[in-house]
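Can't paste images in this forum, so I'm doing it all in text. The chain is below; anyone willing to post the predicted structure tokens underneath?
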Amino acid sequence: MAEALPNPDLDLSFLYEIADGSDEFIVESIDMFMQQTPQLVTEISQGIADKNWPVVGAAAHKLKPNMGFFGMLTLQSMMQDIEMMAKSGAPDEGAVVQKFDTAKAQIEANLVKLQEIKAEKQ
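Text version of the structure:
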């Protein structure tokens, strides 16, 4: 049975505040997030598959600021946990996979929502 998509973990108030009314800035910020995030998610997936924990830790580390910028505080915390587990050297692989699968589903829901917001702003 497929899980329902989680509610987007988004609070764009910080983005709107620094955009200072510029829809172009919002669209460009969303574009950048939508380009970088799937690539980093793929790096984490591949790193987990290869048991390459330094890659997993580095990609999770790179994702954290992006999550904070878009008010994805739950995801930012999950990436912190994944980074810490990966950097421990010999993580509980099951725990990493479970947390990452949850985070990935949330990220995918957020990407859909960001695409809708971007379309409204263009």
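The two ends are 37 Å apart (CA to CA). Residues 13-121 form a domain with the Four Helix Bundle (Hemerythrin (Met), subunit A) fold (CATH 1.20.120.160).
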